[in-house]
């Protein structure tokens, strides 16, 4: 028992801090004075950083303060660029601290630093994006055009230095996320939704699965430990056993992530943070996507009778992670808040269109860390998706009945196996450790990917050539329609 506690001391402290953050939520929610509420939230956040990091707390504190000062010192046209490069440069320095004679921060401090990077860079892009959008709207004179869906920015975002400080350090979401926009943070203090949402019911509903996730993680990690995969005993097992061992590793990793993300969501729900009326068609990370300005004008009486959701702060679709058929869909339901940040900050804003996906993947890799395992895991996804898309269109998309059920299982199995194979690299981290395991299975899955892709391309070409060509009259008719 004591050996277990000593071995997992940091994780236990982290878990207790998350549970404490959930517990204090109802009290924090009742604070009425906005400025006092912001300061209390920031002080709790700073206290959490110090408890988790000790002397290494200087890194998240210093980088966030310098980042928000940089935002205010630079022009709105370029603040996002300067902030992005500064925060990621500091992230590299932070992770290479031992090379500069400083103690290397713990994994828990690393998680906090990662969230700080998302917040500071994200708000810089919000400020710049809102400035660009408002300038375009003014130039085009289209403010009054009715749209089914809101633009990414529907009003100018220009927080003060003090508000940037509070956004960076507020304890809500600081430990494990989720990432949320500055707009969501500001709405929490100025809109009435948190007063009327059933925060207790949502929190209980969110927390109820956590004991199961924790129990499964402890059981799986005890039965199939990570280090065993590097032993000679493992290498002497059958090829099938070695091939399937990453399924156990990825299963325990998922339970760990589910536990942390679910508790992090509960921190938000316990204070009513991220609650919006369902009519806003709320999306993870973003918030309302329809009628946002109308929601801001909602009276207290209307807010009291509204129906709410917490989609804005939902990070993990657990059921989706376990059941979706394709890797493409799996990536959409895994850590959705960070996926949103990468899409908004990198993918949509990167200026060279053919390189957008590569830029997004590269930033995702370096945000996770500097180890080879992150590259092997994240950067190889598109190569599997290329093959997957071909088979999806050829055999799954229009399938029905028993054929669709069989294809669903086959594609789910292949997707799950691919994720498990990549997750082994993510967990082993360093190139030498990854090479030991991949060599033990002869690097087979990369060969399978290549064969899948080549065969898929051939089948796709044969399918195209076997289609009857449409007549001129049919093509003309389609164009008219």
TrEMBL record:
<keyword id="KW-0812">Transmembrane</keyword>
<feature type="transmembrane region" description="Helical">
    <location>
        <begin position="359"/>
        <end position="385"/>
    </location>
</feature>
<keyword id="KW-1133">Transmembrane helix</keyword>
<dbReference type="Pfam" id="PF03062">
    <property type="entry name" value="MBOAT"/>
</dbReference>
<comment type="similarity">
    <text>Belongs to the membrane-bound acyltransferase family.</text>
</comment>
<feature type="transmembrane region" description="Helical">
    <location>
        <begin position="43"/>
        <end position="69"/>
    </location>
</feature>
<dbReference type="GO" id="GO:0016020">
    <property type="term" value="C:membrane"/>
</dbReference>
<dbReference type="GO" id="GO:0044233">
    <property type="term" value="C:mitochondria-associated endoplasmic reticulum membrane contact site"/>
</dbReference>
<comment type="pathway">
    <text>Lipid metabolism; phospholipid metabolism.</text>
</comment>
<dbReference type="InterPro" id="IPR004299">
    <property type="entry name" value="MBOAT_fam"/>
</dbReference>
<dbReference type="GO" id="GO:0006661">
    <property type="term" value="P:phosphatidylinositol biosynthetic process"/>
</dbReference>
<comment type="pathway">
    <text>Phospholipid metabolism.</text>
</comment>
<dbReference type="InterPro" id="IPR049941">
    <property type="entry name" value="LPLAT_7/PORCN-like"/>
</dbReference>
<feature type="transmembrane region" description="Helical">
    <location>
        <begin position="443"/>
        <end position="462"/>
    </location>
</feature>
<keyword id="KW-0808">Transferase</keyword>
<feature type="transmembrane region" description="Helical">
    <location>
        <begin position="12"/>
        <end position="31"/>
    </location>
</feature>
<keyword id="KW-0472">Membrane</keyword>
<feature type="transmembrane region" description="Helical">
    <location>
        <begin position="75"/>
        <end position="94"/>
    </location>
</feature>
<feature type="transmembrane region" description="Helical">
    <location>
        <begin position="115"/>
        <end position="134"/>
    </location>
</feature>
<dbReference type="GO" id="GO:0030258">
    <property type="term" value="P:lipid modification"/>
</dbReference>
<keyword id="KW-0012">Acyltransferase</keyword>
<protein>
    <recommendedName>
        <fullName>Lysophospholipid acyltransferase 7</fullName>
    </recommendedName>
</protein>
<dbReference type="GO" id="GO:0071617">
    <property type="term" value="F:lysophospholipid acyltransferase activity"/>
</dbReference>
